UniProtKB/TrEMBL annotation:
Domain TonB-dependent receptor plug: 91-175
GO cellular component: cell outer membrane
CDD domains: ligand_gated_channel
GO MF terms, alphabetically ordered: siderophore uptake transmembrane transporter activity
Protein name (record): Outer membrane receptor for ferrienterochelin and colicin
Cleaved signal peptide residues: 1-26
Domain TonB-dependent receptor-like beta-barrel: 187-623
Taxonomic source organism: Dokdonella fugitiva
Lineage: Bacteria, Pseudomonadati, Pseudomonadota, Gammaproteobacteria, Lysobacterales
Superkingdom: Bacteria
């Protein structure tokens, strides 16, 4: 009874405050929220420059920098920027962090391999870049980025809507660009959370020229609030090594990011009767980039990855599966100004080699290869142009053309497609900004979708070599307003996807891929921010509605429930307190292999205290009121974790 009253009072207090998601005011940041907003970290990790493009969700009418493979700054795309070290309650993984952005929803099953959708586009319909490297999919649910330790990351830029021109093939519904965190001083963090006895330690050091950091994160099996066992254990070691140097007019930087995760439990509703474990998930990402003061930029990158799967079920032999590949690519581009125009032209290549996948029954020695030494080559030409028509009006245009070739055991598929983008940003008066964007996008079927047939954690899957590419057409209308204390941003959007690739039932526990026609997605997002006259208080409320259906009217997979969130942080002196309240309305229109789920209120909170200069302590609560709810609508999803009480101790040598 007391818990119910407390929850109701807390929710009511937050609702009265306003409906908005402001980053936590980290103690080392400036005291003024306005001053804090004007500081940014560039892609090299340098802090302290005044940024000319600031996230409008946080109260500025100027533009957000959202870097894809193209080097320009898109004016009219809806973009939010989040950072793990500023988030309330220390999210345990990247997925938990990005799903706090309006319009982004959790998909798949619970656990470390949970994935997400952007405005209803999920799986391989969104593109993820890590350090500028496009990540390929190894799973039918899409690209999980759980192999990246959140504490090793800097800016995470979430772009909503078709963004193929700026990011590359695959971003027909949205894109996420992740930059590693730069450690320019000695850093040590140790943390513990009660759910699953989760523990982590992060250490880093560096200077203006190099940054080195390593992390170890592990967790055991946990339980839901109603004491259902959850298969959530794993152990992950990861690191980042970065280097940068100036040679005359050239800037050179390099990145190496290895990650090894073992014995990942797959939490699902059939556990422990049916158990799925990923014995190994290994990744090594590398990048070298050269930039010239004259606008020339060239980068080369590579990604080696391996994922193993082990399924156990009563009365049947154990089954195994593994997928591996080596991806490598490069981007070369030139930016230049011509009068009122700022232009960028470039070429991009991404190749996949040694794409191999097998499944086995009874023993890993009984292998059946459906993919063996397959390869893929994709070339893109892209160009963008920003036109400053007047002080109040800016226009942008862009195009991309991609050619792709896939080969597998003598079979060969060639495909090509193109995309366009056109946008406008108009500032009719101080404090007001109106944006419009119309874009097209595309994605090609992956080698795994076309050719892999075998076991997965969900059941059997059958590839379809006759799959065609998906194409999208999207529009976005945005409005932003701010004054000295308040800020508002709203977007209304629509995205139509042709030749949508969806899973369909072929037999009990057997699914296949098919182009099922047209899918229509539409919705709206709004965010309201308030920096109180009293120093240190900031509020942000947000709400998002996403709707989607195929041409027969059936709901699409991955549509998140209508969601509203409120975040508040108050900082004073050496301490700050923050809370995040999220309300998800009932989801009663499930898509394929989804089920209905009830409405839920979830609260996270934290308290940060500067013990002395360079030493900070954080206490936090996840799922503070121990709500028993499904995190996703997947038919095998299980309940979310029980209440978790955690602590982080951070030492930084300034």
């Amino acid at each position: 009874m007391l818990q119910t009253l407390t929850r109701s009072a807390f929710a009511a207090a937050l609702s009265v405050a306003a409906c908005a998601t402001v980053p936590a005011l980290a103690e080392e940041k400036p005291d003024s929220l306005a001053e804090y907003e004007d500081l940014d970290e560039d892609q090299d990790g340098r802090r302290g420059r005044r940024r000319d493009t600031v996230d409008a969700w946080h109260g500025e009418t100027v533009l957000v920098t959202a870097k894809g493979t193209a080097a320009d700054d898109p004016d009219a795309l809806a973009t939010d920027v989040v950072r793990w070290d500023e988030a309330i309650a220390a999210p345990s993984d990247v997925q938990d962090l990005v799903t706090r952005v309006p319009g982004v929803g959790a998909t798949g099953q619970n656990g470390l391999f949970e994935t997400f959708s952007i405005r209803g586009s999920g799986a391989n319909g969104i593109l993820i870049l890590l350090g500028g490297m496009p990540l390929s999919a190894q799973r039918r649910a899409g690209v999980p980025i759980s192999f990246v330790e959140p504490a090793l990351l800097g800016d995470i830029r979430v772009t909503r809507g078709p963004a193929v021109v700026h990011y590359g093939p695959g971003a027909l519904g949205g894109a996420i660009s992740i930059e590693p965190r730069w450690f320019d001083a000695s850093f040590l963090q140790a943390g513990y959370a009660t759910a699953g006895d989760e523990a982590n330690v992060v250490a880093g050091f560096g200077s203006d020229r190099f940054s080195l950091a390593a992390a170890r994160h592990q967790a055991g099996d946990s339980r839901s609030p109603d004491d259902v066992p959850l298969n959530t254990s794993y152990r992950r070691e990861s690191a980042t090594l970065q280097y940068r140097e100036r040679f005359g007019a050239f800037d050179v930087d390099a990145l190496l990011l290895p990650s090894r995760t073992e014995n990942i439990g797959k939490s699902n509703s059939r556990y422990p009767t049916r158990d799925t474990t990923y014995p190994e998930d290994s990744h090594t990402v590398g990048r070298v980039r050269i930039r010239h003061d004259g606008g020339f930029e060239a980068s080369a990158y590579a990604h080696d990855q391996y994922l193993g799967t082990w399924n156990r079920r009563p009365g049947s032999p154990d089954t195994f599966a593994a997928v591996s590949s080596v991806d490598a690519g490069m981007t070369v581009q030139q930016t230049f100004d011509a009068g009122a125009f700022s232009n960028d032209v470039g070429i991009e290549y991404l190749g996949r080699r040694d794409v191999t996948a097998y499944d086995a029954s009874g023993s890993t020695l009984n292998r059946r290869y459906s993919l063996r030494n397959a390869k893929e080559d994709a070339w893109s030409l892209f160009a963008t142009s920003d036109w400053r028509v007047s002080d109040a009006l800016a226009l942008e245009f862009g195009a991309r053309r991609t050619w792709v070739e896939q080969e597998q055991r003598g079979a060969s598929v060639d495909d090509a497609d193109h995309a366009f983008t056109a946008g406008a940003a108009w500032t009719p008066a101080d404090g007001h900004r109106i944006t419009f964007n119309a874009s097209t996008g595309y994605r090609f079927p992956t080698l795994e979708e076309r050719y892999y047939s075998g076991v997965t954690a969900q059941g059997e899957i059958v590839g379809n070599p006759n799959l065609g590419s998906e194409r999208s057409r999207g529009v976005d209308l945005g409005y932003a307003w701010h004054d000295d204390a308040w800020s508002l941003e709203a977007h209304a959007w629509r995205n139509v996807v042709d030749d949508l690739i969806q899973l369909t039932d072929l037999a009990p526990d057997v699914n296949g891929y098919g182009n099922v026609g047209e899918g229509t997605l539409h919705g709206a997002e709004v965010a309201l921010g308030w920096a109180a006259p009293a120093p240190g208080l900031a509020l942000r409320a947000s709400a998002a509605v996403v709707r989607g259906h195929d041409e027969t009217g059936r709901p699409l997979y991955g549509i998140p429930p209508v969601t509203a969130e409120l975040e508040a942080r108050y900082a004073r002196g050496d301490w700050s307190v923050g809370a995040r309240y999220s309300h998800r309305w009932k989801m009663d229109r499930p898509g394929f292999e989804e089920v209905e789920r009830d409405a839920v209120d979830v609260v996270d909170a934290d308290l940060r205290w500067r013990l002395r200069d360079g030493l900070d302590l954080q206490f936090y609560l996840r799922n503070a009121f121990d709500e028993n709810y499904y995190a996703t609508a997947d038919e095998l999803s299980t309940f979310a974790q029980e209440r978790s009480i955690g602590v982080n101790l951070v030492w930084t040598l300034h």
